[in-house]
Structures are given as C-alpha cells and as structure tokens.
Design a protein that fits this description.
This protein has 678 residues and is of the alpha+beta class. Helix content is 57%, strand content 15%. Among the domains are: 115 residues, no CATH class; 103 residues, no CATH class; 163 residues, Histidine kinase-like ATPase, C-terminal domain (Heat Shock Protein 90), CATH 3.30.565.10. The chain contains 19 helices and 15 strands.
Length: 678
C-alpha cells in the first residue's frame, strides 16, 4: 500500500475515479432531493400517477369552462373514454355534463371558478364586441344579452353613438371523473416511465450514500499520497506549495467568484445550455476544491500551513508603522492642554468629512455609508468619554462623602482623564491620612482628658471632704464662713466640670452602655419639666408644653434621654431671657418623633448651631454665667448613640433645639394601625 502512495499512475486513477464517483453522487443526490420534494418516498404509485395526469385533466376542465362561457351546443367534448365532467352552478345545480355515475369512473378533483366580470371595450352603438365570451346578433337598441348558461353581456351608453361593453360570467364548479384503466392505456407514454422511476426510487439514496463512501475512500488515498514521490519518505512540495498560503487562497477565491458569476449569468439561458454550464461549473468547482485541499494536505504534513504568509508580513509592517506613528502622535498630544486636544480632534473630524464630500460627492449612497460609519465611531467615542467622566464624577462623590476606601480605576483612561483620576486617588490618600491623624489627635485628647480628670478627681474629693468637715465646725468670723462657702461652691463646680469632661469623652467615643427600650417621650418630658419647674420659675421663665393626645413612643435609653432633657433644660435656665416663655413641642412627622425646645436668649447669639455643638463653646461669650460648654455636645453625642440626632437653629436671639428619633408603634398595637394611633 505504501508503494501505491508514491506511484503517479495510482494517483491519476484515484483522481479519475474520485471525479467519476463525485459526478455520480451529485446526480443521485439531486435526484433524491427532487424525489423527496415531489413525495416519491411518501405517496403511493396511484397518487404519483395522478400528479402526472393532473396537467392534462386541468386542461380538460379549462376546456369545459371555455365551452361554458361560449354557450356552445351540447354535448360537449363527446363521450371521451378517459374523463367525464359535471358543470354545476353556484347553488350546486347541474348545468351540463357527461358523467352518468358509471362504476369505472371515480371522482378526481373539482375546480371552482369565481364570478368573472370583465370590461370588453368601447364600440359603436349596436356593434357586437370582439372579445365577448359568446356570439350573438345585436339588435337595435338592445344593450343586454344573456346566454343559455347565464353568461351576460351588456353595454353602458357613453353617448348616443358609443357603448361601453361588459361581460359577467357566473361562478361555477367543474367536477372531473377519471377512468384509470382507460387513462393508463391512453397515456402509457407518460405513466409508464413514471412508474419505472417510482419503482426504482430506492436506488438513488443508496447510490448517493455509496458514492459518498467511494469518493471519501478515493480522497483519503489522494490526501495520504499528497507530497509523496519516489521511495523517499520526505514530503515534497509542488508548484502550488511555492505560493504563500494566503495568496493561494486568494487566487482560489477569485476563481470561485468567477465561476459563480458565470453560473448566475447562465440562469437566463435556454434549459440545455444552462444545464451544460451548470455541469461544467460543478466539475470546475470540484477540481478547484480538490487542488486546494491537496495543497493543504501537503502543507500540513510539512507543518508549513501558516509559514510565510504575505498578509501577516504586510500586517506586521503596517502595525509597526502605526505603532511608531501613534507613539509620535501621543508625544505631541500629551504636550497639548485639554482644549488643544479637543480642537485637534474637531479639526481632524472636519478634514475627514471634507475628504469624504470631495471623493464621494457623485455617489450619495457611498457618502451616506461613510457618514453613518463616522457617526457610529463618533458615538462610540462620546460614549467612552461619558463613561470616563461618569467614573470620575462617581469617584469625586465617593471621596466627598467620606468613603476613603474608594479607588478610581484608571486602567482604561488616557491623557488628562488618567491624570485627573490619579489626582483623585492622591486626594483620597491625603484625606485618609488627615482623617487618621485627626482620629489619633481625638483619641489623644480623650485619653488626656480621662487621665487628667482621673488625676484631678482624687485630690478634689479630698478637698470636698475637708470643706464639708470645716462647714460642720464653728467658725469664729463671718468672713471665714464666706470663704468656706466659696470653696464649697467652686469645688462642686470643678467636680461637675470633671464629670462632664469624663461623660463627654465617653459619649464621643461610644464607651457608654446603651440599653434601648420602648419608652413614652411625653412621660419622660413631663417628669423632667416637673423637676425643673422650680428652677424655671426662679429664672422667670414660663414653660409652654404642646404635645399630641396620643402617646409618642421611641426606642431609647431612659437614663441617657433624661440626661439630654436635663442638659437642654439646664441650658435654658442659664441662658434664657427672664420674663419670656419657653416652648416645648412634641410632634410626629414622616415617622419621626420630634421634641423641640425654643427660648429667647438673654445674650446675643453670634454663632450658628454647628458651632454651639462643639466642645467648650458657650453662647455666652462673656462667660459671666456658670457652665463648661459641654452640655450641648454631650446631648448630641448621647442622641447619636440612641440612633437619633440633635439639631440646633439660631435666628437672632431665638434659640431652638430639636431632638429627632425614629418613632415606633406602641406595644400591643398592630403595625397596620400605627398611623391611625399616632
């Protein structure tokens, strides 16, 4: 077998056999496809013969219809042995026919003809139209004629000398009956070959499959023998393998395109020339494909299929030149500011559009094609810019909101956009370091306050204890008693300051224990008001409490909430103008409980609410009243620990503090009744 692979005569024989088997396979395949389409493998022989007779029977039916329109004398078509007919009107009444219900005749098919109205043309008055379906002798003044079968010819006078004629053929049905035995004898020249083809129908697909196998065997031999010559084991190349594979492929494609063009043009020729050209086209395509695949087989054996492609060399050269040009252009563009780059892009776009207009002005379809392509590329570029700007905008918002972990991805950005993205990342890093330094400073302050407060608290306790002991002794003079009273008052004030410092430190760092539970705001506020009633009267303040009839419930720690009320009411007693009213409101708004404290300040308020919430800040800048400036800061921190917030508003001398907490439904009341209850 190996010796045959190197023999030239064996390759020639295999090529001839492959071509012969291919042609036979194509013929068998076409015949099989045609038979499948015609129903050879589904329908019976009788039905298949009926299809062969159908054109003849259809002509027979049409002849009857023409006789029906022409109003010929009956009997029509005589007593033909093969066919019989029945002519029925639209209501099923028989008008004519030669079918007498003979046993040897069976129903074949019925043809329905709809009502047909036609314009016959303009003729002189009393002149019979040439295209009338039946002949009649026109009578003077008569404009309507009707045949025995109901076909009507009538005229409409256009003027006294000219009539416009029309014809109307009523709808009818023609039933055709067939004598199969007689038809088989009469049309044996048609039905005989059809019967032989029908009985031989199974041979075509079998031959098609067998031909495919034989063609495959011959091709396998040719592919195995490709490149083998003589006794050498080396695979040798031929003339075709000297060409680069991409060039060879391009030549093959040109040959196929040329053959396809010839085949398309041949479709307009007569049947026989068209059949010859189609056969030549198939054989030429076979030889071209055989040469192409054999060349591929040789190249694969030598592992040279992708070696030396001219297209690859050209593309690599173009890529190197484009890369170099892009590098130079990038250097030039990087030196331009952003507005310069935008202007350069605009000028480039204008130049491209001008070139397109000058080149394609005579062919608007080509120009519109390039114009649409340009707009698509421009839309893609704008979409890229929008996405990049959106990413930068999102990064700016995240950093502005305090998200120090957000990183702007600059992998797919270029030029100024990449620089700006990196600047945002550097800002994020700088802010992160600043926040970290600030946190360290706050922790240092807290630790310092805690440690100092602890160190001061021990000697202060001793001072307070000894002052209490001195107060219990009999003091010889009134002056000495006043000194002791001052020491007692100032030591208590210092103790209160230290306690506020410690509490402010714990509240700001979240080191306080918070036990949230459902509580009634009005009850706690009324209790606080009761405890401060005497202080408010002493300060000359009149409290005005406004609250809803239904209870308002929130989740809070009662101890800490009372401390917030205590700080706010204590602040009012210290700084409110005597002789004024103090308003306390409890309200529900958008699912939130709002507790509002309003009073008129005795001293001018020269700072906003945010400043008043800072530590050691007092509204009384002259500091002639007692206080540490920590009360509002502690209240704000305690509110935040309980998922609420404290808002301060100053307007002239008006001071307003608003506590906001999420409202909850009272215990034991269904959630769907919450709004009704509140």
């Amino acid at each position: 077998m190996k010796k045959l692979l190197t023999k030239g005569w064996a390759k020639c024989i295999a090529g001839v056999l492959a071509t012969f088997f291919f042609a036979a396979t194509v013929v068998c395949g076409v015949c099989t496809a045609a038979m499948v389409e015609e129903g050879y493998y589904i329908d019976s022989l009788e039905k298949f013969q009926d299809q062969g007779l159908r054109p003849t029977i259809e002509d027979y039916s049409h002849t009857v219809y023409e006789l029906y329109k022409s109003d010929s004398d009956q009997p029509w078509l005589g007593e033909t042995e093969e066919f019989r007919f029945r002519l029925l009107d639209a209501e099923g009444k028989e008008l004519a026919g030669n079918y007498r219900e003979e046993k040897e005749y069976e129903f074949f098919e019925a043809w329905e003809y709809p009502k047909d109205k036609q314009e016959l043309g303009m003729y002189g008055a009393g002149e019979w139209p040439e295209d009338a379906p039946f002949m009649a002798v026109p009578e003077k003044g008569t404009m309507q004629y009707k045949s025995r079968m109901g076909v009507e010819v009538y005229a409409v006078a256009e003027d006294s000398d000219t009539w416009n004629w029309y014809s109307t053929v009523p709808a009818c049905t023609i039933e055709v009956y067939i004598n199969r035995a007689a038809a088989a004898k009469t049309y044996a020249d048609v039905l005989g070959p059809l019967g032989k083809i029908y009985h031989a129908r199974a041979a075509f697909p079998v031959s098609f499959v067998g031909g495919l196998l034989l063609v495959g065997a011959c091709l396998a031999f040719l592919y195995a023998a490709a490149g083998r010559k003589g006794d050498s084991e080396e695979i040798r190349t031929g003339i075709l393998e000297q060409l680069p594979f991409d060039v060879f492929t391009g030549l093959i494609c040109l040959a196929v395109i040329a053959l396809t063009g010839v085949a398309i043009e041949a479709q307009w020729l007569e049947p026989i020339p068209r059949l010859v050209i189609t056969a030549v086209f198939i054989l030429c395509g076979w030889f071209i494909g055989l040469l192409y695949t054999l060349s591929i087989a040789v190249r694969l054996k030598r592992r040279e299929l992708f070696k030396g492609w001219l297209t690859v060399r050209v593309l690599c050269w173009c890529a190197r030149r484009l890369r170099e040009a892009g590098r130079i252009l990038g250097i030039l563009l990087r030196g331009l500011p952003l507005y310069g780059k935008v202007l350069a892009a605009y000028v480039l776009l204008a130049v491209v559009e001008g070139i397109l207009i000058s080149v394609c002005w005579y062919d608007m379809e080509v120009y519109m094609l390039f114009w649409i392509l340009e707009k698509i590329l421009l839309a893609l570029g704008l979409a890229y810019l929008v996405l990049v700007l959106r990413k930068l905008q999102q990064g700016g918002k995240e950093i502005a909101s305090g998200n120090m972990d957000y990183h702007v991805d600059t992998r797919y950005m270029f030029w100024d956009f990449e620089d700006f993205g990196e600047c945002l990342n550097h800002i994020r890093d700088g802010l992160g370091r600043a926040v970290e330094d600030r946190m360290k400073s706050e922790r240092f302050k807290t630790e310092l306050i805690t440690n100092v407060s602890h160190d001061i608290k021990t000697p202060l306790t001793s001072i307070i204890s000894y002052v209490d002991l001195i107060k219990k002794e009999e003091l010889p003079t009134e002056t000495l008693r006043e000194y002791v009273a001052v020491l007692d008052r100032q030591s208590q004030r210092l103790k209160k300051l230290i306690e506020d410092l410690v509490e402010a430190s714990k509240a700001s760092t979240g080191n306080l224990t918070v036990q949230l539970a459902e509580c009634d705001v009005q009850v706690l506020l009324n209790q606080s008001m009761a405890e401060y009633q005497e202080k408010l009267e002493k300060a000359g303040l009149t409290p005005v409490l406004k609250q809803p009839d239904s209870p308002v419930h929130i989740r809070a720690d009662g101890r800490h909430l009372w401390r917030i009320f205590d700080n706010l009411l204590n602040n009012i007693c210290k700084y409110a103008m005597p002789g004024t009213r103090v308003y306390l409101d409890v309200a529900l708004l958008d699912g939130e409980a709002r507790i509002t404290f309003r009073n008129v300040s005795e001293s001018p308020l020269q700072m906003d609410g945010e400043t008043l919430l800072e530590r050691f800040v007092r509204g009384d800048t002259s500091r002639h009243t007692e206080g540490s400036g920590l009360g509002l800061s502690i209240a704000a921190s305690l509110a935040q620990l309980q998922h609420g917030r404290l808002e301060l508003v100053t307007d002239g001398d008006l001071f307003k503090a608003v506590l906001v907490f999420p409202a909850v439904s009272p215990a034991g009341i269904p959630a769907e009744d919450r709004n009704r209850v509140l």
